[in-house]
Amino acid sequence: MNAIFWILRYIKGSPGKCLIYENKGHTQIVGYPNADWENSPIVRRFTSEYCLFVEGNLISYKSKKHNVVARSSAEVEYKVMTLVTCEVVWLNQLLKELQFEKIRP
Asked: Structure pTM?
């Protein structure tokens, strides 16, 4: 419930500002992952970030510092790619259920 009030306060406090989403005639889903691995031999935790675009419009992003210890940067990149792939598959299925045409992941 607090989130709803926060959103309403934000909308009320920012008149004239808006997001514009363009229809480009296709429903291509594109994901851009990024991973940052701390090189400290003691910590070795990583941060994952990704953005998802549909028709060139940003619809989702996430940045999270993980509590899991990673042994290498390749392991970190693999984990972030797995997260992005799961999000793209989920979004693809959602668009199919909503009967969007011409879906290209």
From this structure: 0.68
The residues near 41 (Cβ < 8 Å, ≥ 6 apart) are: none
* Of 12, 96, 94, 7, the residue nearest 59 (C-alpha): 94
Contact between residue 5 and residue 81 where contact means Cβ atoms under 8 Å apart: no
Burial 32-71 (b: 16+ CB within 10 A, else e): ebebebeeeeeebbbebbbbbebbeeeeeeeeeeeeeebe
| Interval 7-45: pLDDT, tens | 788 778 777 777 777 777 767 888 999 888 776 666 677
Domain boundaries, the chain: 21-104
Instruction: Tell me if residue 57 falls in helix, strand or coil.
Output: strand
Residue 82 to residue 76: CA distance in whole angstroms: 10
